[in-house]
Amino acid sequence: MFAIVLAASTFFPLDCNAHPSPNSLIFLDVSRSQVHMEVQIPLPELALVLGDEIQKDPDQMADRYAAELLTYMSAHIHASGSNNIPWNIEIKSMRMDKGTYVDSGIPYWELIVLVVLTPGTEGSTRNFILKYDAVMHQVVNHVAIVSVRSDWEGGVLAEDSVKMVTAIGWNVDEHAARPLEVELGNGSWWIGFKSMVAYGMQHIREGLDHILFLLTLLLVAPLTIINKKWSAYQGFRYTLLRFLKVSLMFTLGHSLTLLIGTFNLVTFRVQYIEVLIALTILVSAINCIKPVFHQKETILAGLFGLVHGLAFSISLSHLPIDTSGKLISVLGFNLGIEAMQLIIMACFFPLLLMSKWKFYPALRIVFAAVVIVASVGWMAERITNNENTITNFIARFGFA
Length: 400
What we know:
The structure is a single chain. The protein is an alpha+beta fold. The chain is built from twelve helices and twelve strands. It has a seven-stranded mixed β-sheet, with helices on both faces. Strands 3-6-10 form a three-stranded antiparallel β-sheet. The longest helix has 31 residues. The chain is elongated and about 85 Å long. The chain starts with a helix and ends in a 5-residue tail after the last helix.
């Protein structure tokens, strides 16, 4: 957020002595048929226009003044196509949330407005004109920072890949806010598909918890159980077959729930899923030290894959795209996940062949012990919503 505000202040110098408040932020989520727009307006700035009365009991402000806010925002948000035909503007919801001053870190309340912009039959969401002047029509040094948060057909999927950052400010000479011409360029399902493949690969590459889970299952692939203990190396063919079975079952499991979760066919709390992810890692690591599931690692991989698939779907379910776009996204994202998993497993497979060596049991146990510590740290963090020594240490290596 600081980088965005800094970029805007370069083009629209801010008088911080007059109004030491953060500016409004506008996020655009672009799909083929609509543009979803999220507006974040600091309450202290809005109060300069609507009166200080709205700052009393700020958590209830959006409900108390719902009618007035709806009228006000509707009057200050307009859009049209390049042919100047007006778009339909629908304010979907308004709520209050807490923000933080960029410079001091002091919390403040802000109004969050969700708006849907829908073009006419000949309009295109790739090119349109946005007219916005809330607050700034009276507070002339107020600025609205605009960024494209997601644009599936343009390959923009997350906030860390923002495609456009610009600002809308009040033009004193013209006594109006200049319309913003949004030009996103060409977009297609192929660009969206490729970006989803890359996104899937990135998701696994940066997801240490998913990687460790898979590796703990694969570490025992070369082994069998004798007298309730892991035995020695069982041969290349045995290792390869179990390796492929575990990988396939995990893939089938997470592919199913990835599809279900992306289309919101089931509802779940993200926190619960994240805790379950940590639990699956813990159980797999314990099984890596001492057999818990006799010859059932493939079934375990499939069942645990179901949980991991729901976690994967969190990244896709929020995308404002139609059914066909979501199907293409699921396919691309899944292919990206599989591609990165295959790369990781291909690099890891030679280590499994070392299971015939005497040091392999010690290596397996030490690795599993490290994974147990990490999983306990993740579980504690996800239950309490607080970082701890273990997760802080892991974060030093660039993993969340």
